[in-house]
Design brief:
This protein is an alpha+beta fold. It has five helices and ten strands, in the order βαααααβββββββββ. Strands 5, 6, 8, 9 and 10 form a five-stranded antiparallel β-sheet that branches. Strands 3-4-7 form a three-stranded antiparallel β-sheet, with no helix packed on it. Strands 1-2 form a two-stranded antiparallel ribbon. α1 packs antiparallel against α3. It is flat. It starts with a strand and ends with a strand.
């Protein structure tokens, strides 16, 4: 089991989450040792983020109407009824806050969770505990693509939920697949040279994910590439 993050991915979801966090945080301020300034900062962040997301949404919702009005105004038949002109949002902006709202919130939550008085009940109330997510490591299978880059094979892969990947290669030398490398940062370039007098060779690669110190899941499908010796 792994914990998914508690902050929603969408902006609208973030507004709801941050408003809940902001409104309930004062209830736990004394227990968690939070200052009035920290509470005010969170409340200002929530107000400003909610304001700007709602403002953007209002522009999106009214865009077609405003464009239609503009087109009718520009090219409509003479004496066509226009109706009242669209108006700008007259809601005053809240206190402007520094950039990085969720960077600040993440640091505050780390402080909250490090407080000896923090409990799971507080975490649930503030919405800062992620839901459990099943990760079936036994079913993980890397997908490997390959292309030549500056004369060397480049293995293109995605890390996903794994920590790294073990790569094996068959260089058509009768040895079959042998361990090549562990790569934790995609992508991987194989800078080996052709053997002896070989001018070309077909190299085949496969890989398997690794989580911590264990290989997990299934080997990728084999991928092959023709390597050519540079002529100098």
């Amino acid at each position: 089991m792994a914990k998914s993050h508690y902050v929603p991915k969408t902006d609208d979801g973030k507004v709801t989450w941050l408003n809940n966090f902001s409104s309930k945080l004062p209830d736990h301020a004394s227990v968690l040792g939070l200052s009035p300034e920290q509470i005010t900062s969170v409340q200002n962040d929530a107000a400003m983020f909610s304001y700007i997301v709602n403002l953007v949404n209002s522009f999106k919702t009214g865009l077609a109407e405003r464009v239609g009005y503009k087109d009718l105004l520009k090219n409509g038949a003479e004496n066509s009824p226009l109706g009242p002109a669209p108006v700008y949002n007259n809601t005053p902006a809240p206190t402007v806050v520094p950039a990085g709202i969720f960077v600040r919130i993440s640091k505050l939550i780390m402080t909250i969770k490090g407080n000896p008085n923090y409990t799971e009940a507080i975490g649930n109330n503030l919405g800062i505990i992620g839901s459990e997510e099943n990760i079936e490591f036994s079913e993980l299978k890397p997908v490997i693509n390959i292309k030549m880059e500056a004369g060397y094979p480049k293995l293109i892969w995605k890390k996903g939920k794994a920590d790294s990947i073990d790569i094996y290669v068959d260089r058509s030398d009768g040895k079959g697949f042998v361990y090549l490398a562990n790569d934790s940062s995609p992508d991987f370039v194989d800078k080996a040279s052709l053997n002896g007098n070989e001018k070309t060779a077909a190299w085949v690669y496969k890989a398997i994910y690794r989580v911590k110190d264990e290989q997990v899941g299934l080997f990728s499908d084999d991928v092959s590439v023709t390597v050519k010796k540079e002529i100098t």
